[in-house]
Specification:
alpha+beta; two-stranded antiparallel ribbon; two-stranded antiparallel sheet; 6 strands; 37% helix
Length: 158
C-alpha cells in the first residue's frame, strides 16, 4: 500500500480544520466563514459597526430573517435597513481581508480567523483581530500593519 494515497485526504482534512473561505473578488478577498458553515462574521451585522448619526457603531448579532448571500457567504443583518445598505454597497461594509485577522495578515502574512468582537474602523474600513491580546498589538501601529497587509493579501487571497 502506498503512503501517497493518504496525503490527499490529509490535506482536505487540514483545510476543513483551518476553516473555510469562499472565493470573492479582489477587493474583499476570501470570506472567512468558519469550520462548518458559510456564515460570514459569525452572524454579526457588518453594517452595525459603522456609526449612524449619534449612534456609535459596534458588534451586533444579525438575524437569519435578514440574511443575504454575497461572495459565497451568508451575511446576517440586525434590520432590513442594514441589509439594504449592505446590498447597495457591500464593499463599504464587508471587513477587510475577508474577515481574517488583520494583524495576522499584516504582521505574519498568514490567515487566521477574525473575531467580530475585536474590531477597528480605520478610514472607513472594518478590520477584525483574533483576540484582545492581538488587537493590542494591532493598535500599536495599524497603519503599518495595513500597509503590509495590503501587500501580503494578494498572495494569501488565492
Amino acid at each position: 500500500m502506498s503512503l501517497g494515497r493518504f496525503v490527499f485526504p490529509v490535506w482536505i482534512l487540514l483545510g476543513l480544520l483551518l476553516g473555510s473561505s469562499a472565493n470573492a473578488d479582489t477587493n474583499t478577498g476570501k470570506i472567512y466563514t468558519g469550520f462548518f458553515s458559510n456564515l460570514a462574521l459569525g452572524g454579526y451585522d457588518p453594517v452595525a459597526y459603522f456609526p449612524k448619526g449619534d449612534v456609535q457603531g459596534g458588534p451586533v448579532k444579525g438575524k437569519k430573517t435578514y440574511s443575504w448571500e454575497w461572495q459565497g457567504a451568508q451575511w446576517y443583518f440586525s434590520s432590513q435597513e442594514n441589509k439594504e445598505l449592505f446590498q447597495a454597497n457591500p464593499h463599504k461594509y464587508a471587513p477587510e481581508y475577508g474577515g481574517h485577522c488583520a494583524w495576522a495578515v499584516g504582521a505574519k502574512n498568514s490567515l487566521v480567523k477574525g473575531n467580530p468582537k475585536y474590531w477597528t474602523l480605520k478610514e472607513g474600513k472594518l478590520y477584525l483581530n483574533y483576540n484582545r491580546k492581538v488587537q493590542k498589538l494591532w493598535e500599536q501601529d495599524p497603519d503599518a500593519f495595513i500597509e503590509k497587509g495590503n501587500k501580503n493579501w494578494p498572495g494569501l487571497n488565492r
